[in-house]
Amino acid sequence: MDISIIIVSYNTENLLHEVVSRLRAASVGLQTEIIFVDNASRDASVEVLRRDFPDCQLIVNTQNVGFGRANNQALALATGRTILLVNTDAFVEENTLTSTLAYMDAHPRCGILGVRLEGRDGVLQPCARYFPTPWNNFLLQTGLNRVFKNVQMVDDMDWAHDSVRSCDWVVGCYYLVRREVIDQVGLFDPRYFLYLEEVDHCFAAKKAGWDVVFYPHTTVIHLGGESAKSDGAISKSGRQLEALQTESTLLYFRKNHGLAAAIANLLLSTVGTVVQVLKSTLKGTRPVGFADAWHRTALQWSLWVRTRWGAHPTR
Fold first, then answer.
1. Which of 158, 160, 7 is nearest to 71 (CA)?
2. Cα(251)–Cα(262) distance, rounded to whole angstroms?
3. CB 93 within 8 A of CB 215
4. Structural domain boundaries, residue 105
5. CA distances to 164, 239, 285, 289 from 281, in Å
6. Residues 272, 176: one domain?
7. How far apart are the first and last CA of the chain?
């Protein structure tokens, strides 16, 4: 088996036919298998998968276990020499699978590969990223990145996107992984419910000596955020997503950089929120009001306690 394709489905029944048809058109000449993990969708996703794609393997969860854990579940069924993680809102070109697999076969130290990402409007999205640090997060939050121009921002786009390059991490919507990488460092850390799974995984892979590569010679159309849009409780306020992202950030810094880095990120983020409020007040625009600032700060510090200083997940 050349590629085992893993797709986590959550309330995106309207996208399933397009993502599968695009993958099948791109699989000509390759041995591939598709494994779906449905994360307790409340729409008709499971019915659509069972009725229209009986040749795809399907795992149905009775509760949403999170993105990383759901991908991990499919590994028990995957037999490919490479593993491809694809989101339901990511649509490949006809050459995407063959060209990315050929590159990985020709470069044995390439452990993880991502591609050029665009929206349906053709606008380029961040696709080859730098690792987050307490400092670059603070600079971006406060706008001081315009002063400290030599500091690499996570989503820095000021580089040519027309050639292959090594990078820190690539986005999980199209995430091609060599089987040997998974055998050595595993796939996703189950402590992350949502956000930073691929950042953490790329960090572990690079630490183990593997290359993470941005491959620009094929494009994936990525809509982004479709599962969240489908969840009324999440999309209504965004507070749940904010909490998940905050928790994952705490877990990431504590795990990969230690307690000091986790504390530094927490303190700098708090200071950054104060700076945002002061700037908004002086300008009279108030995009960050006192209520929002208080909520953000209270959320960060409460999760700091609930995660036991960034060491344990809350779910």
1. 7
2. 8
3. no
4. 3-130+167-229
5. 44, 23, 7, 8
6. no
7. 35
Do 215 and 73 belong together in one domain? Answer: yes
60 and 187 in one domain?
yes
pLDDT by position in tens, the chain (length 315) = 999 999 999 999 999 999 999 999 999 999 999 999 999 999 999 999 999 999 999 999 999 999 999 999 999 999 999 999 999 999 999 999 999 999 999 999 999 999 999 999 999 999 999 999 999 999 999 999 999 999 999 999 999 999 999 999 999 999 999 999 999 999 999 999 999 999 999 999 999 999 999 999 999 999 986 555 555 444 444 788 999 999 999 999 999 999 999 999 999 999 999 999 888 888 776 666 788 899 999 999 999 999 999 999 999
Element of type H or E holding 182: helix 179-185
Number of domains in the chain: 2
List, in sequence order, every residue forming a beta bridge with 248; answer none if it has no partner.
none
Q: Are residues 122 and 215 in the same domain?
A: yes
> Does the reported pTM lie above 0.90?
yes
Length of the chain: 315
